[in-house]
Design brief:
- The chain is of the alpha+beta class and about 525 residues long.
- The strands form three sheets. Strands 4, 5, 6, 7, 8 and 9 form a six-stranded mixed β-sheet that branches.
- The chain is globular and about 75 Å long.
- Among the domains are: about 210 residues, Dbl homology (DH) domain (Dbl Homology Domain, Chain A), CATH 1.20.900.10; about 140 residues, Pleckstrin-homology domain (PH domain)/Phosphotyrosine-binding domain (PTB) (PH-domain like), CATH 2.30.29.30.
- Helix 4 runs antiparallel to helix 12 and helix 5 packs across helix 8.
- The chain has 15 helices and twelve strands.
- It comes from Echeneis naucrates (Live sharksucker).
- It is found in: Cytoplasm.
- GO terms for molecular function: guanyl-nucleotide exchange factor activity.
- Its main location: cytoplasm.
């Protein structure tokens, strides 16, 4: 075995692929030269064997001086050096052998190094992109304003930033959703026009307000009067009547189109992208309405932070009253459009179900899913003047229809009964409390009609206690308003056609001694 030291103080042995693992010796005990096959090469570090080098060399000399009749045991292929080194009696040699066997192996053939693992390309962040939460105080270096005035500037700055963010969202909605779906023919131009409505007209409207607010900022980035600017701009929000009224049909069409594979795939990819902030298409389409109802809240905050004798003191109340009336008008028109939309979707199984109160209703109080006493899921509509129970279905085109279930109830004739939780059904009225075999009711109430030839009673169950309270509140409100309206109508009809026997009462006075004429003979 031959030792070679390189310049970097490393010792190595190597073995060629075709080399025999036995070590032949001649008759005088000297090793024969083998030119064809080089010696095995094994690499070890010098610091591992520096303190044991002397002992190894002395042991090797003793072995070379042994008699020539001693046969050398062939060395079998191994991945360690323990089979090559003669067992030593000294503990030091055992230690170096174990150390070498752990760190060195024979290379019987040329094997390339394993390729370095490729670095995978980092995926795009799936976290929603955060909005800039900068405050007005962050935009100015110094100021000498009071705490109340600082709060006022913060609210005005929030108003301005809200306009900027809404413009960004509406522009993104057009570029990322509308235009690609039109170019890729995912939806037709008519369908997209129905879903997006008058969205294009809202972007320049809010850009106008943003430019007005930015012009109000002085050299110190503070805003003085904001009331007159808002008073002049708020009438532009009447354009929201058309947009919000269209949303009822837009939502129904969008829900219908989501069942198509191409539409669902496109919308899912957009929602998973970072620009969407985990919002779906409808969340973006509903942003203008959410912005509209926020204007009164912002104005109230500005008014609260406006000190007395400020130039805005008189203008802000007028602006607040104006925006509240606009929001109320938009809500009213939207409610009428929603009522008309669902009224058109009703399918009557019997002609007796067509109550005049349904057609006379101008708005909806609420609607949603409830269960009947058989556990069947119903979609219930509480119109202004009628309560209608339906079963959802689809028409030939895949659109939603509502098949009227049982007899609708006029709101003015409804008796409402709240059923406490835990009350036993009894008498088979509740089939397992509408669910799996439990006789205790939960989140239930009962509605019945009065004053008609045939009474109808329906026991209904809400999904949870919160939903139940919403239904009960809306029903009570509808019942009271409907009865008040009925009574008012009766009084007005009576005033137009009074009883002739009471004509003389209007001619009397408290100080009159005129005798009352006798009308009983008439």
């Amino acid at each position: 075995m031959e030792v070679e030291e390189s310049g970097d103080k490393r010792t190595s042995w190597s073995a060629a692929p075709g080399e025999s693992n036995s070590i032949p010796c001649d008759h005088i005990g000297k090793k024969r030269k083998q030119d064809a096959a080089p010696e095995p090469v094994i690499r070890i570090t010098e610091d591992e064997v520096e303190d044991e080098e002397g002992e190894i060399m002395s042991e090797s000399l003793k072995e070379s001086e042994e008699p020539s009749n001693k046969r050398v045991k062939p060395v079998s292929k191994s991945n360690s050096l323990t089979g090559v080194i003669t067992p030593a009696k000294t503990p030091a040699l055992k230690r170096i052998g174990l150390s070498i066997s752990r760190s060195i192996s024979f290379r019987t053939d040329a094997r390339p190094l394993p390729p370095a693992p490729l670095r995978s390309r980092p995926k795009a962040s799936s976290f929603p992109r955060r909005r800039n939460s900068q405050c007005w105080s962050d935009t100015v270096e110094s100021h000498d304003l009071t705490a109340k005035e600082i709060k006022r500037q913060e609210v005005i700055y929030e108003l301005t930033q809200g306009e900027r963010q809404l413009i960004e969202d509406l522009s993104l909605l057009k570029k990322v959703y509308y235009e690609p779906m039109l170019k890729l023919d995912i939806m037709t131009e008519s369908e997209l026009g129905q879903i997006f409505g008058t969205l294009d007209s809202l972007i320049p409207l809010h850009e106008d307000l943003l430019s007005r607010l930015e012009r109000l900022r002085g050299s110190e980035k503070t805003v003085g009067e904001v009331g007159p600017t808002l008073m002049n701009w708020f009438p532009c929000l009447e354009a929201y009547v058309t947009y919000c009224c269209n949303q009822v049909g837009a939502k129904a069409l969008l829900d219908q189109k989501k069942h198509e594979k191409r539409v669902e795939h496109f919308l899912r990819l957009c929602q998973e992208s970072s620009f969407s902030r985990k919002l779906d298409l409808w969340n973006f389409l509903d942003l203008p309405r959410s912005r509209l109802v926020k204007y009164p809240l912002l104005l109230k905050e500005i008014q609260k932070c406006t000190p007395p004798e400020h130039p805005d003191e008189d203008a802000l109340p007028d602006a607040l009253e104006l925006i509240q009336s606009i929001v109320a008008e938009v809500n009213k028109k939207t409610g009428e459009a929603e009522c008309q939309f669902y009224r058109r979707g009703l399918t009557y199984l019997e002609e007796s179900q067509r109550l005049p109160e349904i057609q006379q209703s101008r708005f909806l109080y609420c609607h949603g899913e409830l269960k009947n006493n058989k556990g069947q899921r119903l979609h219930v509509f509480l119109f202004e003047l009628a309560l209608v129970l339906t079963r959802p279905g689809e028409d030939r085109d895949g659109g939603h229809v509502f098949n009227v279930y049982r007899q609708p109830l006029p709101v003015a004739l409804i008796n409402l009964e709240e059923i406490p939780d835990g009350e036993a059904g009894g008498g088979g009225t509740f089939r397992g409390a509408f669910t799996g075999g439990n006789d205790k009711v939960k989140n239930c109430f009962r509605v019945s009609s009065r004053g008609r030839s045939k009474a109808h009673s329906y026991s209904l169950q809400a999904n949870d206690s919160f939903s139940k309270q919403q239904w009960i509140t809306c029903l009570r409100q509808a019942i009271v308003q409907s009865r008040d309206q009925t009574a008012q109508t009766s009084r007005s009809q009576f005033s137009l056609h009074p009883d002739p026997a009471l004509y003389h009462i209007a001619e009397l006075s408290l100080s009159s001694d005129t005798e009352m004429p006798d009308h009983t003979s008439r």
